[in-house]
Amino acid sequence: MGTLNLPRKVSVLGSTGSIGVSTLDLFEQACVEVDVVGLTAGRNVARLAEQALRWRPQVAVIEDEALLPELRERLSGSGIRAEAGSKSIVDVASADAQWVMSAIVGFAGLAPTLAAAKSGAVIALANKESLVCAGPSLLRTAKLAGGAVVPVDSEHSAIFQVLDPMAAAHVSRLILTSSGGPFRNATREEMAAATLEQALAHPNFSMGAKISIDSATMMNKGLEVIEAAYLFSMPPERIEVLVHPQQIIHSLVEYADGSTLAQLGPPDMRPPIACAFAWPDRLPWPAPKLDLVTAGPLTFQHPDPQKFPALSIAKQALATGGQAPAAMNAANERAVSAFLDRRIRFLDIPNVVAETLERMDHGRSFSTANDAVESARETDAAARRMADEVVTGLCAA
Ligand code: NAD
Ligand code: MG
Question: 155 CB under 6 A from ligand 1?
Fold first, then answer.
């Protein structure tokens, strides 16, 4: 380990979630010595306190202010500062960590991720929604501050690893792979009747509820197409999605000379986290290794556009540009939340998103604020209100 140039001061935003837990588990398994500056969570105060007592950060922040007394109580006598609220999360993100794991879910991750970008830290980016809503600003901010954004999303980590920056001009296509989600083999009729439990049952991964539903609608892949377009400066027509149920090939880069490079690994989020942590070095740890003989046949198919309209909605939003991806993301967050609350049906989710974008376009339109991030915030708020109206209309029907 002595020769590796690893970050020492780190923060984990969203430490209690699926990616946050995998990040701390990786540190444990790799026996890396890190000084944790801050850990943050939304509401899971018990897990946050447990993590804080193990990792001894300077500060632990719970977003829900009503839970601050409980966090204080659980950390009393430990010397760890307990704080609450989204402003304190932004403060943690701005503190002096060299490496920040951005693993809050949804638009709530944007402000802290931007703060980390301004601080010049290396951002390990799991929170794809922040890139979808303000990608160009986020990337520019990180670059100006001397930091970097390293993708954690497995597909983008794969492309990041095989896309030779010296040959970027000769890339003809990016091919993102997708598990196809729990409804890969379902009929549209079966999807129409899908229960919450069926939609949450991802075939290969245990992930947070929001991304699990996004995987089932394939809006996750739609968000990832936008993420790839921004990260790798690629026009939408040169980004393809292929369903690959085994999730062994995480994505591919096709070059103009007919050569295609792929990155492979078992379906596990810790290798892409390790890559983002040690980049440009490689972190040795007892990783589950890929055994191609037992992995079985690797299969591929095109996604069915009738079953998964979210994919073309996302491509359209990317082509429209400006604030359309931020509006799409907000509408999707509200639609997923309504589905998780059992207020709308599964196939209503893409309909709510499409209808919101339609009404935003024809009616009140997107924000025209000069500052791109302010504009994303205003668009997010307007699209949330609009999506809620559409959901209410569906519930009344
Ligand atoms: P999760 O729901 O398991 O965890 C989310 C974390 O954010 C938790 O710590 C939660 O407490 C915190 N949080 C939630 N709402 C918050 C708020 N309003 N303010 C502050 N903190 C809040 O989600 P996850 O599966 O770990 O996903 C996190 C992000 O990583 C998402 O953007 C997701 O798309 C992305 N991602 C996840 C995976 C995966 O395998 N889970 C893979 C690729 C990308
Ligand atoms: Mg992914």
Answer: no
The alpha carbon of 111 and the centre of ligand 2 are apart by a number of angstroms equal to: 21
pTM of full prediction above 0.85: yes
User: From the CA of 241, how far away is ligand 2's center (Å)?
Assistant: 12
Ligand number, closest to the Cα atom of 65: 1
Q: What domain range is 81 assigned to? A: 8-152
Residue 273 lies inside a defined structural domain of this protein: no
What pLDDT was estimated at residue 296? Answer: 87
Which bound ligand lies closest to the C-alpha atom of 202?
1
The reported pLDDT for the residue numbered 202 is 81
Decide: 63 in ligand 1 pocket, CB within 6 A.
yes
Residue 286, domain member (yes or no): no
- Domain-located, residue 280: no
Note the pLDDT tens digit of each residue in 308-318.
Answer: 999 999 999 99
Same-domain check for residues 162 and 228: yes
Residue 188 contacts by C-beta under 8 Å, 6 or more apart in sequence? 306, 307, 347
233 and 305 assigned to the same domain = yes
